[in-house]
Design brief:
By secondary structure, the chain is an alpha/beta fold. The chain contains eight helices and six strands. The chain has a six-stranded mixed beta sheet, with helices on both faces.
Length: 199
């Protein structure tokens, strides 16, 4: 996949469940104090990059998942960019993957309850979905139209699963490689054409 416009892609700041390594999925968990700092840091780094490039932040599109953790991150970033907190759009297709019965659980808890789950996921990393949840293939089909429809340079705040799937599309990765990708909360992914860099 190759974008026609520059995308500044950000994962929401840390939540307490991130710190505990719990699957959040679509449960609406707020960011914690560290997450606030990460959002402000990303705003500062983005502001410095835009200044270097001579880009006015007012000229960008701002788009976020509608969950609290992404909206708070976006609002903190916008304030750091010198913009009012409101003034961005949300798109429900950017919400995190549903992890079904895994939501709220840690990996050791999942392994204790369903020891074959991770074996099945490793065997089919794109197609496997926890009971009541989504697979990465399903997530890709949901979010791809959002990225294809971008019509101007955009700042987007979304979730780890969405970012992994998008990186897989840009970098032409197989499902197993997508699953293994990192989605840092303290960096901005700058996507230009089919090239990804981090600030």
């Amino acid at each position: 996949m190759r974008l026609a416009h520059t995308l500044y892609l950000v994962r929401h700041g840390e939540t307490d469940w991130n710190a505990e390594r719990r699957y959040q999925g679509q449960i609406d968990i707020p960011i914690n104090r560290k997450g606030h700092g990460q959002a402000q840091r990303n705003g500062r780094e983005l502001r410095a990059l835009l200044e270097t490039r001579g880009i006015d932040p007012l000229g960008l599109l701002y788009l976020a998942s509608p969950l609290t953790r992404t909206r708070t991150t976006m609002e903190l970033m916008r304030e750091t960019l010198g913009l009012p907190a409101p003034g961005y759009q949300t798109d429900a297709r950017l919400i995190e993957a549903s992890y079904g019965v895994w939501e709220g659980l840690t990996i050791p808890e999942i392994e204790a309850r369903d020891p074959s789950a991770f074996t099945r996921r490793k065997a089919d990393p794109g197609g496997f979905a926890p009971a009541g949840g989504e697979s990465y293939d399903m997530l890709r089909e949901r979010v791809l139209p959002v990225f294809e429809a971008l019509h101007r340079d955009t700042v987007m705040v979304t979730h780890g699963g969405v970012i992994k799937v998008f990186r897989g599309l840009v970098e032409k990765l197989d499902a197993g490689s997508i699953l293994a990708l990192d989605a840092p909360q303290d960096q901005v992914l700058v996507v230009e054409g089919d090239t990804i860099s981090f600030i």
